[in-house]
Every structure is written in structure tokens, then in C-alpha cells.
Design a protein that fits this description.
Order of helices and strands: HHEEEEEEEHEHEEEHEEHEHHEHEEH
Distance between the termini: 25 Å
Structural class: alpha+beta
Number of strands: 17
Shape: globular
């Protein structure tokens, strides 16, 4: 079975994770376990007799070595959940065969069109077969494509022709809400090093990601009737706006790219009495990351001096760190992936993730774990797509990574 055929089965499972679920609930949505159970049975049929789902919805399994030589245990990891940013229920995928390079009508009735004028990556896939949505849901290539590519690799190895070492496989829940590595059992997994298969464009290899933090700014105001407010009212809304104005206006996502970091106001609510602002803070460079957090602290101190103690309550919480420092001592992992891609006819491209990955946290948990492409584009939205041929190529890349040299 080809990778895309598996993928089309997997997207039939709604595995949307829930960022509002309590931290002690895992997985955040019970429906993720339906796909997990399905994968366990499929893995057993492919020779992973120890395949199982643990109490938290994580799937583990190992394919025994088919080689007399003692080789490192290589891990392959993808996540089962899809982003809550768009609906993952009732996905209706379709294949645009031999794409002609023009506009793609995703939904005639709703007049939803995906155009290369807006999504320039489409221009690279003229003549390819593209899996797209009907324009009302996401597709789920992030990361069911990675799951499908790993499972296709396992089937390729099932014939016993290719020599390989022991392979550890892990499928996680809740990656999209930042909890994918929370309960991952690295010791039980048993790999010497691993790859997450959770990237975008075919050929990407990622071992640098943002350092990340979350900031919550609670503004405590004093409300009074506006007719009698002079020298008495402290409008929490206005003080919240003032706090935001003290941050560099050009260091926001809309003004940054590449290695440039940012602060991002993601939510704001409140009234004159109390206002809450929620931010994420990101930077690849640890020194600049630290400086960005320090600006938040400085702004909070200044406004507390100006308006009174406890006017601004600031909570800063680090989320994850750049895995580069954990991967650099093991650069053979990156060289192995580059060679595997070249041998599969894929041009490797080292890129820095403007985001995070389970692999970053796993690397800090003692499992070096860079990230590989799946071949997909436009994740988390209605215009998500993935070329069939890119999925085939990634299954070949994974085969090259694990086979004995």
C-alpha cells in the first residue's frame, strides 16, 4: 500500500486536540484514541508484536532488527492529533491528478478556490497529484502524513529483504497543543536517536527551532463612574494598551522572518477593572530570547512604579528551547538524513523552524531528535495540501535512513 492510500484512511478519524482541556487530561480528546487503537492493530499486522497504546494514548512499538550486525536503535515519531485552528471533522479529501498549474476549485458550491497567485508553492507541483480538502476543513497532513509514511516504511521492511537494525516507532497525541512530549516515555521507547516526521516541504531537515515562552499580563485597574472619574479611574484597558506600546512594534510576526524572533499578542480581554493580555515570545538565539523576556519585566516594573504596586501582574513561563545545542554533538544524525534524501532523489534543505516540535523537547529529555519533512503545505487551514509523489519519496527517505549500510 502506498503512503497516500494509508493517509486517506487516517484522515477519516477526527483527532482534533483541545487546548482548553485540563493539563491532567491526556489525551485532551478521547477521540484521538480511536486512531491510536487502529494504528496498534495495523502495526501488529506489520510485524511489531509489542505494539500497544498506553493509558495516555501514546502508541509504541518496535520492529526487530533484521541484521546480524549490532546497530543503533533508530526511532521514528509522528503525532496523531490535528490542530484545533480548523475543523478536523468530516474531512473530505480529493486528489487533483496531474495538476495543470492553475487554480484549484476546492468547493464549487461555496466558491472556494486555491490559487498559485496566493499559494506560490503550488507552482512547484505542476504535473503532480495533489491531495486537497473540500475547502471546509483542514486536511490533516500535519501529521497524519508522517504517520502514513512511517507505516509505509514498516510495510516495505516486512518482506525481510532489507537489512536494518531495531526500529522504535512512536505516535503521540496532543502535539498541536504543545503537550506531545509531556508523557512520552523516552526510556521505554529505547531509541539511541530519533527523527520526528512532522515537517513541511519535501527535503526539509530541521534541527533548529525557537526558544519559546508564554507571558500573561494581568492589569488591575480602578473603575468608577466616568462622570466622577478625574484623578480616580485607572482604566485597565488603556494600561494594557500602554504596556503593549512599550514593546518594539517591529518585533511582531507580521514584521519578522527567518531567524528573527518576535513577541505576539494572541489574546486580549477585559474591562476597565481588569484586563488580561496573553503573549508568546520566540527567538532562536538564547541571548535575544532572554532580552525579549527582560523587556516584559521592565515594562511591568515601569507601569507599577507609575500606577502603583500590583497594577501589572506578569507571569512568564518557558515552553521549550532550541534543540540545536543538543543536536550539534550528534551531527551524524543530520548527515545521515541528508544522504538518505539524496539517495532517494530528494534535495535536502536545512531550515530553521519558526515554531516548535516534539523533537525539541525530546532532545532535552535525552533523545536527540531532529525533524524531517512530510511533503505537506499550508498546515492548520482549509488550503492544506500534499503531493502524492512527495509522500512516496518520504517513505523512500525513511527506508534509506534505517537500512544497514
Amino acid at each position: 500500500m502506498r503512503a497516500y492510500e494509508r493517509f486517506l484512511k487516517y484522515v477519516g478519524f477526527d483527532t482534533t486536540s483541545d487546548e482548553n482541556a485540563p493539563e491532567n487530561v491526556c489525551p485532551s480528546t478521547e477521540k484521538q484514541k480511536a486512531l491510536a487503537k487502529f494504528l496498534v492493530e495495523e502495526m501488529k499486522g506489520l510485524g511489531l508484536s509489542d505494539a500497544h497504546m498506553d493509558k495516555n494514548g501514546y502508541v509504541y512499538g518496535t520492529l526487530p532488527a533484521h541484521c546480524e550486525e549490532k546497530l543503533p536503535v533508530i526511532g521514528l515519531i509522528s503525532h496523531m492529533d490535528t490542530s484545533p485552528s480548523a475543523s478536523g471533522a468530516g474531512i473530505k479529501p480529493k486528489i487533483v491528478e496531474n495538476y495543470d498549474g492553475g487554480d484549484i476549485v476546492l468547493n464549487q458550491e461555496k466558491q472556494i478556490v486555491m490559487s498559485p497567485a496566493k499559494f506560490e508553492s503550488l507552482r512547484d507541483y505542476k504535473g503532480k497529484d495533489l491531495i486537497v480538502t473540500d475547502g471546509t476543513t483542514l486536511l490533516g497532513a500535519d501529521d497524519k502524513a508522517g504517520v502514513a509514511e512511517i507505516m509505509t516504511l514498516l510495510e516495505k521492511l516486512g518482506g525481510g529483504v532489507v537489512k536494518h537494525g531495531k526500529i522504535a516507532v512512536g505516535f503521540t497525541p496532543d502535539e498541536e497543543i504543545g503537550r506531545g512530549a509531556d508523557r512520552f516515555d523516552v526510556e521505554h521507547f529505547g531509541a539511541d536517536y530519533a527523527y520526528t516526521v512532522d515537517g513541511g516541504k519535501l527535503g526539509e531537515i530541521e534541527y533548529e527551532n525557537f526558544n519559546a515562552a508564554a507571558a500573561t499580563v494581568t492589569v488591575n485597574g480602578v473603575n468608577i463612574h466616568p462622570g466622577d472619574a478625574k484623578n480616580k479611574m485607572k482604566n485597565a484597558l488603556l494600561m494594557g494598551i500602554e504596556f503593549n506600546s512599550m514593546l518594539p512594534p517591529n518585533e511582531i510576526p507580521a514584521c519578522t522572518e527567518g531567524y528573527e524572533g518576535f513577541h505576539h499578542l494572541s489574546h486580549m480581554e477585559g474591562d476597565e477593572e481588569k484586563t488580561v493580555l496573553r503573549y508568546i515570545i520566540r527567538d532562536h538565539d538564547m541571548n535575544q530570547f532572554t532580552e525579549k523576556k527582560a523587556r516584559f519585566e521592565k515594562a511591568a516594573r515601569y507601569l507599577n512604579e507609575k500606577y502603583g504596586d500590583n497594577t501589572i501582574e506578569l507571569t512568564l513561563q518557558d515552553s521549550y528551547y532550541n534543540m540545536k545545542e543538543k543536536i550539534e554533538p550528534h551531527m551524524f544524525i543530520i548527515e545521515k538524513a541528508k544522504k538518505a534524501m539524496k539517495d532517494a532523489g530528494v534535495e535536502p534543505e536545512i531550515v530553521a523552524i519558526r515554531g516548535g516540535t516534539d523533537g525539541a523537547r525530546l532532545s532535552y529529555m535525552g533523545l536527540p531528535c531532529p525533524n524531517l519533512s512530510t511533503g505537506g503545505h499550508n498546515f492548520h487551514g482549509r488550503f492544506e495540501y500534499i503531493p502524492v509523489q512527495s509522500m512516496d519519496s518520504m517513505a523512500d527517505v525513511l527506508l534509506n535512513i534505517v537500512k544497514a549500510e
